[in-house]
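ARCHIVE CARD
Drawer: 12
Card no.: 0347
Subject: one protein chain, sequence and derived structure
Cross-reference: see card 0346
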Amino acid sequence: MQFFQSIHYKAFEDPKPRLDDVPTRREREEVKEKLLELDERLWPFIQNKNWDLHRHRQVEHYVSSTHFVFLPDGRPIVNFIDGLWLHYGKSPEQLDFVKLIGGGYDYKGYDDDEYYNAFYLHTRIQFYINAKVFRCWLLLATDKNYYDRSEFLKKIREKEKERDKFYLLIKSLFDKKYFYEINGERLDLKSSLLKENLMKFIKKDKHGYYSGIVKEYTPDDMAISESNIIAEMKTNLELLYLLYDFMAWRPRLVY
């Protein structure tokens, strides 16, 4: 049996992404419950690793929204919901500090408690499902942020030793069905990939793009069956965390 059933993927089939009625919300809530179940089984593993990787500060936002959310001025944050995700990223203290120094956000002027999605403007490791696939996704940047991305690109552009370090880290993903994605364009992470070609691809990244590292699963992939998904995602987390640690800028704070 698969961990995610057909009903979970169907929650995002057209025209449902642009609907926000009660039946559609109920379908999304069922998906959210499965993602929260995944969190319950993965979070103890993350805690035991003592990684600098954190849940959203608010329990209700461990998983992305199942309904349309509006800013104080009445504008919707998004006009459609074509997928949901469970995500781990910066700590509340790190978010507060980056907000304090400016951080390059599009939400400057909003309070974190009001603009709940501040977490999504940062590099995260997330587990994502839409109508067609399930993803384990080290999301460097969305179309609406640039702070993590700009610092990452600056680091690898300016220093050869940083490029070498990053290439060594990313080699651990070679031939394991991962790809680097920038604005929908994919670069397969295979043993034949040279450092120069990787860097040339990464330099295409810029503000306004989604970018990150992905492993994708079809609904019938046995790696995400009920009996296999936890071990599979733990392996992904172990592989991706060191890359997250390299790519995500955050202050080193004492907790």
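Annotation on reverse: Residues 112-116 have pLDDT under 50 and may be disordered. The helical segments are 6-10, 22-49, 92-100, 147-158, 160-170, 195-202, 229-247.
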